[in-house]
Specification:
The protein folds into three domains: 206 residues, no CATH class; 83 residues; 149 residues, 2-Layer Sandwich (Alpha-Beta Plaits). Helices cover 65% and strands 9% of the residues. It contains 20 helices and seven strands. The N terminus is likely disordered.
Amino acid sequence: MPSHAAAVRTAPPPAPNRRLPLFPAAAATVALLLAAAALFGYAFDIEALRRMGPFGAAVNPLAAAALLLAALAALPLETRTAQLWQLGASLFLVLVSLLVLADHAFGGAINASSFFFPATVAADLADGRRNVFGTSTALCLIALAGAQALRMRGLVQPAQIAALLVLVPPLIAMIGLVYGRSALTGAMPAQAALAVVALAAALLGRDPRLGIVSVIVNRRTAGMLARVVLPAAIAIPFLLDWIFLAAQRWGVLPYETSLSLYLGTGIAASVGLLIYALSEIDRIDRRRRRAEWRLSFEADHDTLTGALNRKSFFTAIDSALASRKPLILLIVDLDDFDAVNDKLGQAAGDDVLRYAVQRLLGILRPSDLVARMGGDDFGVLIPGSGTRLAREIGERAQSALGRPFAIDMERALVGCSIGAVACDPAARPTTSAEFVKQAEDALAAAKAAGGGRIEVRAAG
């Protein structure tokens, strides 16, 4: 049988979905608008649409067109025609990106952008600018096309890993934009970086219940922790680094002091996140253990009285018989219980049953077992030997159950009849059913004698 991980990696291609999933559709639309804005800026010579930020590089027109095509291919359409279109667009993007990489390898002699946008390239050269299609953008487009192909083949988890790796170059460029470092933004313009991030997010959002994304979005422990810890783990270093650079730029603190505060705060934040995650895991583990204990208790105990149920009591008797130690078994039947039910109601009868179990437990040792056999019958299993001890315990049980029960300002009086069987290693039943049958026969004899009696027998 294949493992769960293997099943996730080789999941079948998604079934056709005529509704656009909201998140991937929105992310693809953002990428489309960013790329279209850059092309619009080239068409109408609007510099603000071609570059973002005071020092950001302008988007290459071929890169903008490639991103626009990638955004159209990233729309979450699952029809057969749409999948063929996505595959064709991915292949075309790979070819264009490889051409761009070859151009960089040969020192820009090819200038791939001039094949598609000759007028724009010529105008830039005339102004003394050489706007090139960056290698980072080309590599990201190749990786996105590969991830799209992997997903279409049903390899969801590898596709998601590829999409996560795609996020690295654009995030570096965006860090440079936030921190005011032009050296970081030169490799990938801001619009291209945002568009690539949106395309990767669209791909990650296509299959939220499969692969590594399912760990983040599910409602289990890992998902709850990931949705809290991951945003904090990403945002805190950004904030601390920005504060550190601002302190240096404005001369607020010496370099050594700023670095010490930066490292100390970073360590404290990391430890805090770790402690939070561990505390949540511990809290959830304690809840799970309580739930498991509750389920185990309910499986072995009577839900009304809390005593052992018949099945678990028989199991305990079999285990005790197998140990070949002397045992005493009592079957206790409440006399006049039906009269209490008729007079005070079923709720009062339930209270009597609960109180009866508590009184029986009060006269027994921790090693003794009390079970509800059904109705108003109870079983008591006691390690020990001799009919004399069996009678003593039966008398204590009669005394405890013979006292009135206070139920809703009323006094409920019930007695009990008891059948007891004592066995020793020499003469003992072979099964729990046989042992219980002998005790029930003794109880029947006590009831036949008028009730309120104790019938004690040696096991035969």
